[in-house]
Structures are given as structure tokens and as C-alpha cells.
Design brief:
heterodimer; A: 331 residues; alpha/beta; 4-stranded antiparallel beta sheet; 12 helices; 22% strand; B: 306 residues; 13 helices; flat; binds adenosine-5'-diphosphate; binds magnesium ion; membrane (chain B); Peptide/nickel transport system permease protein (chain B); BPD_transp_1_N (chain B); transport (chain B); MetI-like (chain B)
């Protein structure tokens, strides 16, 4: 209920350019210890680039042009590659959408987990393998001794994601960034992986930045949620607050397109009329203007700042007072 | 794994059988191979004698069975010119070609693969541009021309290296470079493509995400994955080098089987040519099988497949 005074992770004004196009534009959010912050938005809205930028893992075409990434009292944005390398996997970890592709197909699972431990601790091979074995138990993989000797092609996607989680957490980082960790998996496996992540938060107090385009996942696991649209945060709020009182037209439409949050965990966000502008098409005003039912001239020319809407609840809309009209427009 | 090995060996045997058959067909394409074997201006009587001696007057299928039977018993016939077993003549020349091929392969792999790795890891940098220029040159200058250029510069003008013939290691330098240049370019190009392709894969980003330094990721993960297509190229290139040796050995007066092939064609000593063709074909087949075995060692997906 009560927001801690000091967040563990404080991202502010994160901005990423690709070829002069601003694909991530001034993204800010904070995550408290042991909290799950969900970053939701349609495909292409800049979620992955936000995540990659946080760890200095942007593709070479992309540049982080602005932003602070405070982890504790250190700003990752000022880190050299060498410093980042030491922080990655130890202070902040990330797992990706395609767990099977995230493992070297030619190296044994055990060696890849153990490597992650040895690089940060300098532990011996034997100790690292023992630690890897424990991690496999922790992430719920039965028969860990056999698994250590196996190769990625012998494991299912869900199993690979558990391995990736084991690798990500083996050095006990305080923050785990999970970029659509369940998107590539079957529904039943998705639920298992989400349960595992909940357990990790409960057991180790790991903070999670969970990227997803699935509102069902958000409802299931998140404490706070930031809704992204076309490179910007449209609305950010405690999760229940957002579901009960959406304060941005995009969020309102999004929620309306998910039939029932409590029972329908799988719904895509792409059910709003019109299409997302590409970064080249971004105008000077609100990026949602081209699809917004409440749009006025001001929206097209002037970018709305994030207005406070309540405790920890902010929304970037000039017409927050008219949000009720959207609910009224819906059948 | 056992089944994989078995399958490869069976394929190799089928390929070798195919090669033998094709060589037989080529020899008989003109109708009467005797005419290929006699010196020019031979009398009709001489031709008839030789035809009977070599059995070319028998029905074709009898000849084919006899041919296969001889080869199975490693009987490759006699040189019609020197009247000694063709295989002995080829065997006496083979060590020189092996030396040359080894030298060329050292140049091709020793330069090509590191160059490819550097180009892929420094993409767009000055080193990439310089090496790309070298590679393009290596692959566009014909072998005989680069041989002549090398001789002109290093033997005639600078006098650093012997122009031709055998002798010490210094004799091997230019022929190896001339023969290996084309291969070197192929290795460099393939390695570059292959390493660049691996570098863009998700597992590289994932390895960076767990804090591994890039050089370690390249050595431990990228190169191993990138080696798979390069191994296939290597297998092909060894055969190509032997075929390329024909020109190089002639230019550098190198007494290997390439030079022997040319000499035997000129002397119409076709049984020797046949042995050389068979030998080069076998090398292609054998290196292909070896490459398959190396895949199995490198790639657990092959090794552990049932
Ligand atoms: N490697 C890249 N090269 C060029 N454009 C990219 C690259 N990666 C992402 N983008 C562009 O950046 C935008 C945001 O991408 P991304 O962060 O991957 O979106 P999300 O993860 O929300 O689906 C998209 O418009 C995408 O086309
Ligand atoms: Mg993404």
C-alpha cells in the first residue's frame, strides 16, 4: 500500500534514437525492492529497446541519447562497457523472449549456467557446477544432474526459460528485467513461468521489470504498470488503480478490448482502430492522436506531459476529464 | 551416432562407385579408347595389337566389369609409355603435391580464417576495408596470373625466392601462395559471413547479458558455431587445391601429380591420367566424409541424434 521512500531502480528520461527517429522517448519509472513493474504496450512501441538500454545492450544501430538509470545509488547510464559488464548478471539481469535461442546450441546447459557464476565470482569449475545444480532445483527443474549435461536442443522452450532464469539469478541480482518471457511459450507453460517469477520475488525479494503485451499477465503478477505507446509512457499507475480508473484514452480502450481481466488472461492489445504510427511518422503532439476518439487540435501539436492523477498514478493526456466519454462510447 | 557414421560411409562408397563409372564412361566416350593411348602416327597394326592387349575389343559391359575388378584389386594398369604400373608413377610424384597442397592450405586457412574473423568483428572499420580489398584481389586474379606476378616480383625483380623447381622450403613459398590465394579468399569470405551471422544471434546478446566479455563470447561460443559452414568449405577446398595444382605445378616446374597430369596428356599416357583423376575424386569424397565426422564432434545435435 505504502510506496517506499527510496526506489531500488529509478529510470528517468530514458531516450533511444535509431537513425534520427526517437523510438524511446523520455521513459521514466521506478521500481521498489521486491516489486513487479509491468511495462505493457503493443509490439514495436519500444519496450525491448527500453529494456536493452537499461543494461547497455542496445543493438549497434540504436543510441541512448538521454536518461538516468539509477540502480541503488549508481547510474548505469554513466557506466563504461567494462563497468556494465560487471553489473550485468550480478546487479541486474535480463531474460529474453526466445529462451531457446538465448542459449548457445553447442554448449552444455551446465557450462552456460556455471560460466555466468564463475565470471562474477571467480569460483572454481566444480563449485560453479554445484551452484548451477542448486539453481536448477530453485527454478523447479527436476533431475538437475542430468539436465546439466544436456544441450539446449534437448530441452523444451519452457525448460530453456527456466534455465535462463537460473542463469539470470545465479549471482543474486536485485533486479530482473524480463522481456516478454512467456510470449514464445504454451499457455500452460506461461502460467508456470509466471508462478516461478512470483515465487522468486517472494523468496529473494528480487525486483522485476516485466515486459509484456498481455494485460492478463499484468493483472496476474504486477504491482505497478506502465502503459507504453509509440515510444512514450502513456500512463503509469498501481495495477489495481489502472484497471479501476484508467486515465488515458489508450488504456481505457485497451482494457475495454480485454473482455474480463480476471478470467481471460490471453488477449492481444491490437484491437483498437487504426494502426500505430511508425517512429518516422511521429508528430509533434500526442502520439496517440491519430487513433484517439477524444482528439483535439491541441493534441496534434502539443505533447501532453504526465499529469498526476492520484498517488503514483500519472497520465499523459490533455483530456483526462473526458475519459468517461470513452467508457460511454463503448457498447 | 553409429548410424550417422554408417550412413556417411555408405554415401561415400556410392559416390566413389559413381566416380569410377563416370571415368569409365569418359574414357569410352570416343568409342575406342585405344586411339587415345597410341602415339600419333602409329600404324593400324600397332593399334590393333594394343587394342587386343588392353582388351578394348571385348563387349563394353565385359570391359566395365573387368575395369571395376581391376580397380578393386588396386590394379590401375601400366603406363603405355614407360611400361611400369601407372600407380607407381603417380605415387612417386604424390609427395610433392602433398607438400604443395599442405603449403597452400596453410596459407588459405592460416590467413583466410583469421582475416574473416577480424572482418566480422571489426565490421565497417579500416581493417575490414583493407582485408576486404585483399580478399577481393585474391579471388579475382586468376591463379596463373598471380603465379607469374609472384615470380616476376619476388624471383626476377627482388631475387628473394627461387623462381621454380624443388629444393628447400623457400621453393615452396611462392607456389603455396599462388595456389592458396583463391582458397584463402573463399575461407575469408565464408568465415566473415559465418561469424557475422553468429554475432547477430540471440545467444550472443544473452551471453553479454550475463556479463561475459566479448572476446570470451567470441572464442567460446561464436567461433565454434561459425566453424560449421567453414568446415564444409574446407572439405571442398582441399579437392579444389589438388585440381588447381595442375596449373601451379606447371608454372613453377613442381614435379607433383599436376605436372604429371599435363605431361601424361601430352604423351597420351591416359592410364596415368585416369589414376590422377580417380585420386583427386577420392580426395573430394574422403574429405567430405571427414567433414561430416567433424560436424558430429562439434555439434551435439548431430552427435546425440539417434
Ligand atoms: N535493430 C533494430 N534496427 C532498427 N530498428 C529497430 C531495431 N530494433 C527495434 N527497432 C525499432 O524500434 C522500435 C521499438 O522496437 P522494440 O523496442 O523492439 O519494440 P517492442 O519490444 O515494444 O515490440 C520499433 O519501431 C522497431 O521497428
Ligand atoms: Mg520486444
Amino acid at each position: 500500500m505504502h510506496e517506499p521512500i527510496r526506489p531500488l531502480l529509478d529510470v528517468s528520461d530514458l531516450t533511444v534514437d535509431i537513425d534520427g527517429a526517437r523510438v524511446v522517448d523520455g521513459v521514466s519509472f521506478t521500481v521498489a525492492p521486491g516489486e513487479v513493474m509491468a511495462l505493457v504496450g503493443e509490439s514495436g512501441c519500444g519496450k525491448s529497446l527500453t529494456a536493452f538500454a537499461m543494461l547497455g545492450l542496445l543493438p549497434s544501430v540504436a543510441r541512448r541519447t538521454e536518461g538516468r538509470i539509477l540502480l541503488g545509488d549508481r547510474d548505469l547510464a554513466t557506466f563504461s562497457e567494462r563497468q556494465l559488464r560487471k553489473a550485468r548478471g550480478k546487479d541486474i539481469s535480463i531474460i529474453f523472449q526466445e529462451p531457446s535461442a538465448s542459449l548457445d546450441p553447442l554448449a552444455s546447459v551446465g557450462s552456460q549456467i556455471a560460466d555466468a557464476y564463475r565470471i562474477h565470482t571467480g569460483a572454481s569449475r566444480a563449485d560453479a557446477f554445484e551452484k548451477a545444480r542448486q539453481m536448477l532445483v530453485d527454478v523447479g527443474i527436476p533431475d538437475p544432474d542430468r539436465r546439466l549435461d544436456q544441450f539446449p536442443f534437448e530441452l523444451s522452450g519452457g525448460m530453456c526459460q527456466r534455465i535462463m532464469i537460473a542463469i539470470a539469478l545465479i549471482c543474486g541480482p536485485r533486479v530482473l528485467v524480463a522481456d516478454e518471457p512467456t510470449t514464445a511459450l504454451d499457455v500452460t507453460i506461461q502460467a508456470q513461468i509466471l508462478d516461478l517469477m512470483k515465487k522468486l520475488v517472494a523468496d529473494h525479494g528480487t525486483s522485476i521489470v516485466l515486459i509484456t503485451h498481455d494485460m492478463g499477465v499484468v493483472a496476474d503478477i504486477a504491482d505497478h504498470v506502465a502503459v507504453m505507446y509509440a515510444g512514450r509512457i502513456a500512463e503509469i499507475a498501481p495495477v489495481q488503480d489502472l484497471f479501476d480508473h484508467p486515465a488515458h484514452p489508450y488504456t481505457a480502450l485497451l482494457l475495454a478490448s480485454v473482455p474480463r481481466l480476471d478470467v481471460a488472461p490471453k488477449a492481444d492489445l491490437a484491437t483498437i482502430e487504426g494502426s500505430v504510427p511508425t517512429p518516422q511518422e511521429f508528430g509533434p503532439g500526442c502520439h496517440f492522436a491519430s487513433r484517439c476518439p477524444l482528439v483535439t487540435d491541441k493534441c496534434r501539436v502539443e505533447q501532453p506531459p504526465l499529469f498526476a492523477q492520484g498517488y503514483g498514478h500519472r497520465s499523459a493526456c490533455w483530456h483526462i476529464d473526458r475519459i468517461a466519454e470513452i467508457t460511454g462510447m463503448l457498447p | 551416432m553409429l548410424r550417422y557414421v554408417g550412413e556417411r560411409l555408405l554415401q561415400a562408397m556410392i559416390a566413389i562407385f559413381g566416380v569410377l563409372t563416370i571415368v569409365f564412361i569418359v574414357m569410352h566416350l570416343s568409342g575406342d579408347p585405344t586411339l587415345l593411348l597410341v602415339p600419333q602416327g602409329a600404324s593400324a597394326e600397332m593399334i590393333a595389337d594394343l587394342r587386343r592387349e588392353l582388351g578394348f575389343d571385348r563387349p563394353l559391359w565385359v570391359q566395365y566389369v573387368g575395369y571395376l575388378n581391376d580397380l578393386i584389386h588396386l590394379d590401375f594398369g601400366e603406363s603405355v609409355v614407360q611400361r611400369v604400373p601407372a600407380i607407381d608413377i603417380v605415387a612417386s610424384r604424390l609427395p610433392y603435391t602433398i607438400q604443395l597442397a599442405a603449403g597452400a592450405l596453410t596459407v588459405a586457412i592460416g590467413v583466410g580464417i583469421p582475416a574473416g574473423i577480424l572482418m566480422a568483428t571489426r565490421r565497417g572499420g579500416w581493417l575490414d576495408r583493407v582485408l576486404t580489398a585483399v580478399v577481393v584481389t585474391g579471388q579475382s586474379v586468376p591463379t596463373f596470373l598471380s603465379a607469374i606476378l609472384l615470380i616476376f616480383v619476388f624471383a626476377v625483380t627482388l631475387g628473394w625466392l627461387p623462381a621454380s623447381g624443388i629444393g628447400g622450403l623457400s621453393n615452396l613459398v611462392m607456389p603455396s601462395i599462388a595456389l592458396g590465394a583463391l582458397s584463402m579468399s573463399t575461407f575469408a569470405r565464408m568465415t566473415r559471413i559465418s561469424v557475422a551471422d553468429e554475432l547477430s544471434k540471440d545467444y550472443v546478446r544473452a551471453a553479454r547479458a550475463r556479463g561475459l566479455p566479448m572476446p570470451k563470447i567470441i572464442v567460446r561460443h561464436v567461433l565454434r558455431n561459425a566453424s560449421i559452414p567453414v568446415i564444409s568449405i574446407a572439405a571442398l577446398e582441399i579437392g579444389n587445391l589438388l585440381a588447381g595444382a595442375v596449373i601451379i605445378e606447371t608454372v613453377f616446374a613442381w614435379p607433383g601429380i599436376g605436372q604429371l597430369a599435363i605431361q601424361s596428356i601430352q604423351a597420351r599416357d591416359f592410364l596415368i591420367v585416369q589414376v590422377i583423376v580417380l585420386l583427386i575424386s577420392f580426395v573430394y569424397v574422403i574429405t567430405a566424409v571427414l567433414a561430416d565426422f567433424i560436424y558430429a564432434i562439434v555439434d551435439p545435435r548431430i552427435r546425440l541424434a539417434r
